Amino acid sequence: MNRLSLILFQIFLVLILFTDYSYSGIVMEQMRYELKTPDKKDKGILLIQDNKMLFKDTTNNVSTLFDFDRDQMIVLDHNGQTFTVIDPKAFVKAIEDYTKEVKRMRQKHLESLPPEQREMVEKMIKKRELESGKNSTGKIVISIKNSGVSENISGYKASKYEVFHNDKLNEELWLTNDLNIQKELDLKKMSNLMTEFKKVNKRLGNDTVVNEDAFINLFANGGFPLKTVDRSFGETVYIEEVVDIRKEDIPEDNFKLPSGYKEKSVNELLKSAF
Predict the structure, then answer these.
(1) Contact 254, 73 (CB under 8 A)
(2) What letter does residue 254 receive in the DSSP assignment?
(3) Residue 219 parent element (H or E)
(4) What residues make up the domain containing 91?
(5) How far apart are the first and last CA of the chain?
(6) Is 208 helix (H, G, I), strand (E, B) or coil?
(7) CB 76 within 8 Å of CB 65
(8) pLDDT tens profile 213-224
(9) Do 99 and 130 contact (CB within 8 A), yes or no?
C-alpha cells in the first residue's frame, strides 16, 4: 500500500470509528495485518483526550493528529521530520486536482499503447472497479447486516456486522456497546470534519455512493469497532484489531507539534506519497 493510501486509511479509519463516541484519556493499541501473512503486523497506537485524537503508526513512523476545536488534521512524518496542516476543504480540492491529473496522464498513456495492449489494460481497470464493488451503472449501494455472531475482543463483547457493496461482502465490523465514550470529544465537530473528509473518497473514484450514511447510523446504534476485516482490495484481505485498551492521563505534549519539524504543503505531501 502506498503512503497516500496509508494516510487516507488512517483518516477514514479514525474518523469513521469515532463517528458518535468518545473517550477521556484512553490509549488503544492496534494491530493491522494481511490475512495471508498474519505474522507481519503493522502496529499502531491511538490516543484520545481533550477533544483531540492522535494515531501513531509505529511501524511506518507516521502520525495523524486531529484537533476538533480547530477543525484540522496534521500529518506528521517522523522520518523526514515534517508536518502538514490539512484544512479539509483545501485537502479535498488538492485531491480532486491531483486525481484529475493522474487520470489525464493515464488516458494519455493508454492512447499511446497498441490496440490489443490497450484493450487488455482497460479490462484490468474494469476488473478492479468490479472488485471494489461498483455495479454496471458505476454506483455503489451499501447495505449492512447483523450476523448474530459475537465474540470477546480485548475483554469486551463484540457483535459482528457485515457491510455489502452491491450485495458483495466488502467489510466485517466487530462492534461493542460496552464502552462509555461520551466525555472528551465534541461529536458535532467531529461529525462535521468527517463529512468533509468523506468527500476525498468520492474524488478518488467512488463518485456515486448510495446510502453512505448507513455507516453513521451503524456506529450510532451498533457500538464501537474493536475489529475490522477489510475485503475491499479483492483477494487481499486486511485485518485491524484492538489488542489492548487502557485509561490513563496522557501528557499534553503528545498532541503538540514536535520541535524542529518543518512544514510541508499539501501538494508536496501528495507528490511524496506516490
Answers:
(1) no
(2) G
(3) helix 214-222
(4) 3-273
(5) 10
(6) coil
(7) yes
(8) 666 667 666 567
(9) no
